[in-house]
Amino acid sequence: MLVSSKASLKYLSIPPRKMRLVADNVKGMKVEKALAALNFTPKIAAHHLAKTVKSAAANALSQEGTDHLHPEDLVVKNIIVDAAPTQKRIRFRSMGRVFRYHKRFCHLTVFIEGHTDVEAEQKAAVKTKKKVVKKDAKTTDASDKKAAAPKKKAAKKTVAKKTAVKKTAKAADKNES
């Protein structure tokens, strides 16, 4: 069964363009590899993305439980980076002028998917059923062999009787001559 979960982080004070540079590097990776890559990425966006990936993985594990879902089976399916509201700020310049600048923010959403062991257990159950059927077929073959075995013994007995008769006949012929 396919398990999917998501985690989001809103109003990050990082421009969306800078966040997308890091997010594109880990899309499609397994969670463990993605976290390892993010730990060695020298950008502040990597820290926030790693936090969100860990949260999404924890959501998936708590949703399904660790009995059926293993952390190493989780994959980062998609990462969406949206623009959040921009703060307008001013910086004072010479001769009473004002210079405007924008502080850009972003929203980060991480989607994670993984397969549960329920499917594996079902497949294993089907395989064991097939093995049981094969074993039953073998036991029926064995019972057929057992039924056929006495016939072979009976056939061997008749062959032994014929050879014994031939030997006695030859011995009788030798005695007569």
Describe the structure.
With 177 residues, the chain is α+β, with helices and mostly antiparallel strands. It has a domain at 2-115: Ribosomal protein L22/L17 (Ribosomal Protein L22, Chain A), CATH 3.90.470. The longest helix is centred in the last third of the chain and has 60 residues, at 117-176. The strands form 2 sheets. It has a 3-stranded antiparallel beta sheet. A hairpin with a 5-residue loop joins β3 (87-92) and β4 (98-103). It is rod-shaped, with a radius of gyration of 39 Å. The protein starts with a strand and ends with a helix. α2 (31-39) runs antiparallel to α3 (44-64). The mean pLDDT is 81. It has helices spanning 16-26, 31-39, 44-64, 117-176; strands at 2-12, 75-83, 87-92, 98-103, 106-115. The protein has 4 helices and 5 strands.
Task: Summarize the helices and strands and which ones pair or pack.
Elements: E1 2-12, H1 16-26, H2 31-39, H3 44-64, E2 75-83, E3 87-92, E4 98-103, E5 106-115, H4 117-176
Antiparallel strand pairs: 1-5, 2-5, 3-4
Helix pairs in contact: 2-3
Search tags:
177 residues, alpha+beta, Ribosomal Protein L22, Chain A, two-stranded antiparallel sheet
